[in-house]
Specification:
By secondary structure, the chain is an all-alpha fold. The chain has one domain. Helices cover 89% and strands 0% of the residues. It contains 4 helices and no strands. The longest helix is centred in the first third of the chain and has 45 residues. It starts with a helix and ends with a helix. The model has no long low-confidence stretch (mean pLDDT 83).
């Protein structure tokens, strides 16, 4: 009986650690989304010129996504959507920057670094949330 109790306690401890890691990843994603949203809003206000409305929309989407991720509504859908959105914006920026030379300033670079970190964070969050769901 003690063996079963020890096994149960070990599994419980492992599950609690996985939940703690999941919370850390989720809240770091919220912070990264807010940072990306604020940078996009700032960029739209300061640098974008003709395309400022597009940057406002991108910043607004990031802030809204931060609220959705923070509230943990439909986590798998929202995490996958944020990952796809970040990768999509990164690839569009890279394509346009290589072809036209626009968007090659420090603020755009900072924005793309945050988006790259966000994409990695979303992958880790997706992976961790799927594993933690299987353990329950």
């Amino acid at each position: 009986m003690k063996k079963d109790e020890r096994k149960y306690l070990r599994q419980l401890k492992t599950n609690l650690e996985a939940l703690s890691d999941l919370k850390t990843l989720r809240w770091s994603a919220v912070v990264l989304l807010l940072i990306a949203g604020i940078i996009d809003l700032y960029y739209g206000n300061s640098f974008a010129g003709f395309y400022e409305n597009l940057w406002y929309v991108m910043g607004g989407i990031y802030v809204f996504a931060a609220l959705v991720i923070a509230s943990n509504v439909e986590p798998h859908f929202s995490q996958l959507t944020v990952f796809a959105y970040a990768v999509f914006l990164w690839s569009v920026w890279a394509t346009v920057a290589l072809e036209t030379g626009t968007g090659l300033d420090n603020v755009a670079y900072l924005d793309k670094v945050v988006e790259a970190i966000l994409a990695v964070n979303m992958l880790l969050l997706l992976r961790s949330s799927r594993v933690s769901l299987k353990t329950y």
